[in-house]
Write a structure and sequence with these properties.
123 residues, mainly alpha, 5 helices, Succinate dehydrogenase assembly factor 3, chaperone, transit peptide, mitochondrion
Length: 123
């Protein structure tokens, strides 16, 4: 893939994920947006092998989130379920740093008083 086509593909995936995050509860959106921005920035200078894996995983995330957003259409956000279980096999492929990031993300997304305690307008 030519460099300009690759950049376009990465940018398109990045933007699509951020658009899908608009359908998440506002605190999860803030958390998700920050995580996506950090991860895409962190992988700008990754090796081609890492980029291939990175793009595959984020494409799967985008597809899963898109399905969940469509499935939740018409329901209250509080009753919608977002996310997916990670298999032991998938977890065993993670590097130690990734396990740490995942753990911190899990803690932040499940605690009752999240760091991103944002109120939507009019509520």
């Amino acid at each position: 893939m030519a460099a300009s086509a690759h950049v376009s593909t990465v940018r398109s995936l990045y933007k699509r994920i951020l658009v899908l995050h608009r359908f998440l509860p506002i605190d999860l959106r803030a958390l998700g947006d920050q995580y996506v921005k950090d991860e895409f920035r962190r992988h700008k200078s990754a090796s081609s092998e890492e980029v291939k894996s990175f793009m595959t995983e984020w494409q799967l995330y985008k597809d899963t989130l898109q399905t969940q957003v469509l499935d939740s259409a018409g329901r209250q956000l509080s009753s919608a379920k977002f996310g997916a279980e990670l298999s032991e096999r998938k977890l065993s492929d993670f590097q130690e740093e990734q396990i740490g990031q995942l753990y911190e993300l899990m803690l932040e997304s499940t605690k009752p008083n999240r760091q991103f305690d944002i109120q939507e307008d009019g509520k």
